[in-house]
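To fix ideas, we reproduce below one chain and its tokenised fold.
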Amino acid sequence: TVLFSLLYLGSCDDGPTEPENEPGRRDYVWEYDTLKIDQNDIMSIYEIWGSSPDNIWVGGYGDTYRNSLWHYNGINWQKHIRSGGGDISGFFGIDQNNIWMVTGNNTIWKYNGTSWNEIIHFKYVGYDAVALNSIDGFSNSEIYAVGFAGNFFDSKRTRIIMKFDGTSWSFVNIPELDEVFGNVYCDKYEKKIFINSHRETTPNSPSYLYILEGDSLKQIINSSDVISMGKINGRVYIVEKKKIYNYYKNQLRLVKDFSNTNFVGRIWGRSEKDFFCVTWDFTIAHYNGTDLVDIIPISYDYHVGDGILFEKDVFLTCENLTTGTNFIIHGKLK
């Protein structure tokens, strides 16, 4: 009895106590919705956020203000005109009437259910400009945005983190370093803030993964490969060298090793047994807990930007880099 108790208690500590998930289905009907722009305009859409399948926002680069932000109402995609510009680099939403958006020109915007409004236009002391690349948070009183500050006429540059405390935005006091922060993801289970980065001035351009703890950055990965992240049901998943990890009890936990597959990364999913990713075969693949199967063929000149899933729907942003055509891949379970 004592031996059984010890074995049982030990097994309870092997991983997160989350409900067992059913294998993901693959019986989707796929549609490709082209975002139509004027003949001489240029656009590159890559970010996505939505509260439901009939309320989706996508954003990215547009050579005019009218092309960088689009909305889907469940029937069609429409351009959404703002009062100002800037490349859209990330969304974080609380609900359909409470959405934050960061841009590459020193501005943060917020949607109130009716219109997008510029909340703050800021500067970083000693630098000409700030570009924010990503935004995420735990609640409307704890939000983080990351990117870099740089100068126009020299190569001086440094990483930056901004934080919203429910009242105002401010810079987190971290040491300056010639580094670009790419993405920030907040894990609601572990209450951790993850930030990935790269240093272009360092030989072989290594990638790094940090955890932000107050004003301190703890480095947990230093890799020669690209480090990407995704989020499934509030938990952050980290991809490095064809392996997927999450963070549990202050250490990385291996979730899945895809070393012997054509897996590249970029995961979007509902559970560890139901997620999409990108492969070397210019294909979007699906993992159902058992096998990884190519499910949506795309061309070598296509770029998949971001994705979001709901109970029966999946939306992925995609661009044909040769023609400049942007479209949304929409899958719906039968």
